[in-house]
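Protein 1 of 2
SEQ + STRUCT:
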Amino acid sequence: MADSAAVKTMTFLWEGTDRKGNKIKGKSMAANETAVRTDLRRQGVVPSKIKKQGKSLFTGASKIVPADIAIFSRQLATMLTAGIPLVQAFEIVGNGHENAAMQKLILAVKADVEGGSALAEALAKHPLYFDDLFVNLVEAGEQAGALETLLDKIATYKEKTEAIKKKIKKALTYPAAVMAVAIIVTIVLLIFVIPAFEDLFKGFGADLPTFTRMIVDLSVFVRTKGWILLIIVGGAAYAFGYFYKRSRAMRQFLDRASLKAPIIGPIIQKAAIARYARTLSTMFSAGVPLVEALVSVAGATGNIVYEDGIMRMKDEVATGQRLQQAMENTDLFPNMVIQMIAVGEESGSLDEMSSKVADFYEEDVDNAVDNLSALLEPMIMAILGVLVGGLVVAMYLPIFKMGSVV
């Protein structure tokens, strides 16, 4: 119900005077103008002008991304630490947000809190944006009377995990973009440039070199039957996406294969271990019981192989097994990680040792991604040279052949 209510809210621009008689203006989210007027008067603002904000032709529908949730967590934690009341903090963060969808979400949560709901309960109504880990930590903070402390831990956790994701995406985006450009250039050459050379070659009256003949035939195929190839590639991509979302067995196979892949596999493994350690540290330091914490930890790793392994660990820990031994039984964690967790268990500082493991692997991921980027650049240049250079050489081979005969 909260989501549907949030969708119906609109943005209103207003002007008015505060309790001291100063002229102020701003914007608010509400279902109608009456609700805005009531809310402003409750804040001590006498509105003189209220109008609905129009939609810009150049702005599309905004979308909430994990980075928005991370920023929101940090803003809310900072305001609560500064002593600002919860509802007022939501009002400030919500009305000041540039993302309209995020603004609606924040003000919808604020409305639930104003209605008497606990913050954890209000957040739980939006599971698409606030997962079980987020809600559980907020609930623990509310029960312990340390909400600002827990929100600070959530914000740190979100910032760290988002930093890893951005680092990996950045490393993969550059080669993907270059390869896409290379493919487009190759297709343009095959469709528009090669036919011009083909017409020229017909007047030679001699057999073309084998390599040139292959490129010409490929050009003819792309021009006449390229749409078939496009349908096949598009259909394969759609089928892959469809079954990847719905088949856990397929995702498990691909995640397992990605862990064994050369170069990229170790980075994915280190990222999963970093998320595991960071989430375990955050949950355990919040006072969440270990067995319950492992459920959230499993879902935060981003890899089904690790998720399944951690769920098996949870079952073993629930029967009295030590976390160190349960980790050894999965064969998913390096010995260094297991030993540091063992030290944490023995000394009663599991959250601190887990945080150290997370720091180490997050830095390791950063270094590995930087090295990967440096390694990929010459490989990409070599591939570009083979693709484009090969086409150019194929077209000039007959001309070179004629020159040698003459």
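Protein 2 of 2
SEQ + STRUCT:
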Amino acid sequence: MIGFLKYPGTWLDHTGDDSHQIQVLLYQAESDLVLASLALMLFQQQRGERVAGLDQAEWAARSEKRMVLEKEVKAELGLRDWDYSRQDEVRNEVSVRMVEAEAAEGKLPRSYQHQLPFLHAKSFLFALDGVRKTLLSLKRIGSSAAASDIALGILAAGVPDLAGVRDSTAHADERSQGKARGKALPNVPIDGFGIHAPGGGAIVISGLHGDVFHCTVEDGRLAGVAVNEGSLGTAFQAVQALLDALPWKGDSRIVPDA
């Protein structure tokens, strides 16, 4: 999805000392929207290229390659083919050589491939939260406070758990210990995102259910942010509302332009 912002004018119609500060923050919000758009594109592309199982021919080729490497490693270690006394060492060295050879051909290990959707989902999450934080900064400036408040309301209504999911993702080390801000997480029943734990006790650090990235947040709930056009569209709508509520002068412009 490529979203567009319409600046009602070329410059802010405001001569106060904070005019430049507001303009810089508007560019930051625009930049984060671009990052979120790119992350969404990559996330959706990766979901369309799910890691498939090996077919019979690939499985046979890998097995043959592993056997050849095993003979090679054993020879280097001075072991005969039937000597399994150092099999852990041999197996590990074979794995290293296979992974490095495939990486040289541009093939990622399957465990890396599995993480790619999470990488792009988190990039989307942090970019969207960057928009939220910029709006909060604008709210602290008197000349843009009212306009920013409108935008924050739109974002909170459309992506209500953005801040909580972002915070838990940034503090995954603490959540993995069942804590938030040094205190134990509340024990909350969970029934959602494919998880049913009526007695609570389940902590999710990083999950994907369809296109929803989810995790356990500070109040013990399992909360999520949809990595899709709806969330991105809400962020664009929020920033557009901000722009529309500010005073401008000069010709209007669209970004990105051709």
